[in-house]
Amino acid sequence: MSWPVVKLHDICRPKQWKTIAASNLLESGYPVYGANGKIGFYSEFTHESPTLMITCRGATCGNVHISEPKSYINGNAMALDDIDSSAVDLKYLYYFFLKRGFDDVISGSAQPQITGQGLTKVEIPLPPLAEQKRIATILNKADAIRRKRQQAIQLADEFLRAVFLDMFGDPVTNPKGFPLGIIRDLVESANYGSSAKASEAGGDYPILRMGNITYEGAIDMTDLKYIDLTDKEKPKYLAVKGDLLFNRTNSKELVGKTAVYDRDDPVAIAGYLIRVRTNEKGNSHYISGYLNSAHGKATLQNMCKSIVGMANINAQEMQDIPVTIPPVSLQNRYRDIFVSTKEKLAAHQAALHANNELFNALSQKAFSGQLS
Prior knowledge:
By secondary structure, the chain is α+β, with helices and mostly antiparallel strands. The protein has three domains: about 5-125, DNA methylase specificity domains (Adenine-n6-DNA-methyltransferase TaqI, Chain A, domain 2); about 125-175 and about 325-370, Bipartite methylase S protein (Helix Hairpins, Orthogonal Bundle); about 180-325, Adenine-n6-DNA-methyltransferase TaqI, Chain A, domain 2, CATH 3.90.220. The protein has nine helices and 22 strands. It has a four-stranded antiparallel sheet. A four-stranded antiparallel sheet has the order 11-19-15-17, with helices on one face. A four-stranded mixed sheet has the order 13-12-18-14. The longest helix has about 40 residues, at about 130-170. The N and C termini lie close together (about 10 Å). The model has no long low-confidence stretch (mean pLDDT about 95).
């Protein structure tokens, strides 16, 4: 089936609005959208109606979101303003972009970005509005199924955060009276990853980059590259099960992402990551739980240094972060609960993978005119 193809700039006006500093965000008001969805609230809004936006800076460059009504869209996202609703369905456009991606539009290496000029090359197949709405409705139903799986996984993450608070207390007030210290007190070693160029073609080891650590604190083994390491390099650059991985350089919103490597096979780590190994006083799951807590993330946001759009927290600064020092037996008990919960989630993860494959197959048919 042949549909007219239109340029993105012919159906909307991409615009980056003024960025609100993190220090000016509020705890209530109109939602503010940044590079990775909602980041806070503000006293004003830029968009009265739901608006489609494309993340245009940082590691999540190319992600797409639809804002709530009366929202402020920050400069780290490109708002697609003035879409003609009589000719274009917003949800159709959203699902088309999810399938299309923006790899051919993203520029920059140290700081990935999408510009308005880059978006001029984006073309969109545009069937009649009724067909757009039909496609959007079908994809929306398939998307809802996989989102329910994602929500079940998120509930498990919330459970683990509650367990952390119950076992260790609020790190701000330290109600359990644990000794105070810094992360360094729990660390045996902290090493930067390799700056060598990785390859998609293959190599001895997969290499984890900043995109392979999720904001929620998990390891994502998709979109891997590979690298060869000499015997001399292996002790410096390989991560093994139980190692803590810390993302030292990223956009301001994402710097400091932290996860415990939980696979049996070793992997290499790239230069934007720090590999941390604990001493007899510490457990990597406890440090990860702290840095992924609300207080931990706020601490990371307040301490990072921004240079040309990228933020950085080096190994020494990370180790100087204040923490409580619970007994290692309690830290180990938290690790056991964490690992057991994640193992039980494996079935949900497998179902989510199947749901994603179904959604991708429907998308392929939908935008090639083969969806019956």
